[in-house]
Design brief:
The complex is a heterodimer of chains A (260) and B (253). Chain A has helices at 47-55, 95-105, 110-123, 139-151, 169-186, 197-203, 235-259, and strands at 4-14, 20-31, 36-40, 62-67, 70-71, 79-82, 157-161, 189-194, 206-210, 218-223. Chain A has 260 residues and is α/β, with parallel strands linked by helices. Chain A has a 6-stranded mixed beta sheet, with helices on both faces. In chain A, a hairpin with a 7-residue loop joins β9 (206-210) and β10 (218-223). In chain A, 45% of the residues are buried. With 253 residues, chain B is an all-alpha fold. The radius of gyration of chain B is 22 Å and the shape is globular. Classes of the chains: A alpha/beta (260), B mainly alpha (253). The A-B interface holds A 55-57, 74-77, 79-81, 83, 85, 87-92, 101-102, 104-106, 133, 135-136, 146, 149-150, 153, 159 and B 147, 149-150, 152-160, 163, 167-168, 171-172, 174, 248-249, 251-253.
Chain lengths: 260, 253
């Protein structure tokens, strides 16, 4: 059985003027336990909508979302979330206090949660930065705090909404490598939202390509069987890149045409 | 010494130049008993300090400001938090805040005196009145300015609604609350002087009024300088305590 299933999901937003916008429609997707699923799509296609639905921040207008065989009715610590920007971090807490947040809410004792938080800070490469406040840290480091904060809670699944999109190219490449290392160590199921083909091929074990919105759905899913370190200059890597590119090219064009 | 100078040197130069300019203007430009130079005001202040009159007036005003300001903040913060958290409550309470905040506290003096007499109660009522709306509005604005992702992150980390309020909404709002309180403090000074001018037996405003009645220009200036220094000192203390106790909540860090 799949870990998460989206069946015929539809999400409609109503604007202040009262007009309906159907962001996604007839959306079907199954995510298996332990996989690193990249959901790729042109900007504005409703990728983030899908993430919000899976996270339980919003509920679908129609269709159903199942986690195992229980319907998703709201946010839960089963599904940890890493957001794109840094506005989800708590500016009044230090790095380690941010990471401890979930454990503190559950009433884990101070010494135990400090131990666990420190282990995860180390895992994401933030050793020695634990007493700093988010504002004192770089964009990359702030994303590391978010990743550690989600993982220390031991979620069944990690939802990542373009977490590296705001970082510079070098930091992004480094963060991608480190995320793969962390994922290999943890084997947490990941749903990773991105608009970057390169990122999807670098990270994913499967890639789902979305159609341009409105009424977006999954256009196709591709298995990526690349083992070990993924090299951007490798032939196999490039073949996957081209394959995904072929799938998404028309959608990007459509999305741009609509924007104009 | 170098450290002391870099921290306070600017203030020292500022204050010395302020009093120098005042002295020059009073002695060489105006040259009238109606505008006494700082030395005369200082000597008068010493006399009033020694006979206890100044302390009495000063303490009366400070006491009223503190009592009203603390009560107003203690009432305003929870109301603001509630208004920011619940849209329906906001709609119910907005007519009160939006209507009353445009009636200046100075305009309420007459009513306050009729209701509460010229004693402490009317002054404290006025300071509460002047404090509460600024604190409510700033607190409510702070709650609605919280980034939705801060709330979502807490939900995904397993926090309950009560925990989100206590551990996310409240601390995220602290800078707004403190800003509201600082603004309210400045307004309290205006209000207390106006109230004491009209109806009081002691206080810095009463001192101003008596000075006008009996043509004690030096007394008027002592009162004015006290207001300035008191306001400056209180605002610094406020900033210092924000920095010390709530520095980590400030948006700058």
């Amino acid at each position: 059985m799949s870990l998460v299933r989206l069946r015929n999901v539809q999400k409609t937003y109503r604007s202040l003027q009262g007009a309906d916008y159907v962001a996604v429609e007839g959306f079907d997707l199954a995510i298996e336990a332990g996989e690193f699923f990249c959901l790729l799509g042109p900007s504005g296609c409703g990728k983030t909508t899908v993430l919000k639905l899976v996270a339980g921040f919003e509920s679908p207008t129609a269709g159903e979302i199942l986690m195992g065989d229980t319907p998703v009715t709201g946010a839960s610590r089963d599904r940890g979330v890493v957001f794109q920007g840094d506005d989800s971090l708590y500016g009044w807490l230090t790095a380690v206090e941010n990471v401890e947040f979930g454990l503190r809410m559950r009433g884990v004792t101070k010494s135990e949660r400090r131990d666990r938080a420190m282990r995860y800070l180390e895992l994401v490469g933030l050793h020695g930065q634990q007493q700093k406040y988010p504002a004192e840290l770089s964009g990359g480091m702030k994303q590391r705090i978010q990743i550690a904060r989600a993982l220390v809670n031991e979620p069944t699944m990690l939802l990542m909404d373009e977490p590296f999109a705001a970082l510079d190219a070098q930091t992004r490449a480094l963060m991608q490598q480190e995320l793969v290392t962390v994922w290999r160590a943890m084997r947490t199921t990941v749903l990773f939202i991105t608009h970057d083909i390169d990122e999807a091929v670098t990270l994913g074990t499967r890639i789902g390509v979305m159609r341009a919105g409105p009424r977006a759905a999954v256009k196709g899913v591709l298995d990526v069987s690349l083992n070990g370190a993924r090299d951007r200059t490798d032939d196999v890597f490039l073949r996957y890149y081209r394959q995904v590119y072929e799938m998404i090219r028309d959608e990007v064009a459509k999305s741009n045409a609509r924007a104009e | 010494m170098g450290c002391w100078w870099s921290r306070y040197g600017g203030y020292l130069v500022g204050f010395v130049s302020l009093f120098t300019l005042w002295h020059l203007a009073a002695v060489y430009l105006v040259g009238s008993v109606l505008f006494p130079p700082p030395s005369v005001v200082f000597r008068k202040a010493m006399v009033l300090l020694r006979n206890g009159v100044l302390i009495e007036h000063l303490w009366a005003s400070v006491q009223r400001i503190l009592a009203g300001f603390i009560a107003g903040s203690l009432l305003g913060i929870p109301i603001g938090l509630a208004m920011g958290s619940f849209r329906s409550l906001r709609k119910i309470l907005e007519p009160y805040t939006e209507f009353l905040r445009f009636i200046p506290s100075v305009a309420m003096i007459t009513v306050a005196v009729i209701w509460f007499g010229i004693g402490e109660a009317s002054k404290i009522f006025l300071i509460v009145y002047t404090t509460i709306f600024i604190v409510i509005l700033n607190t409510a604005a702070g709650v609605s300015a919280i980034a939705p992702n801060k709330i979502r992150a807490a939900q995904a980390l397993g926090a309950t609604r009560a925990q989100i309020f206590l551990h996310v909404a409240l601390p995220a709002t602290v800078p707004y609350i403190l800003t509201g309180m600082r603004l309210a403090m400045a307004n309290s000074f205006t209000t207390i002087v106006a109230a004491e001018l009209i109806a009081a037996n002691e206080g810095l405003g009463k001192m101003l009024w008596d000075g006008r009645m009996f043509m004690l220009v030096d007394d008027i200036f002592v009162s004015l300088v006290c207001l300035g220094l008191l306001g400056f000192a209180v605002d610094r203390m406020f900033r210092w305590s924000i920095y010390t106790f709530a520095g980590k909540y400030s948006p700058a860090t």
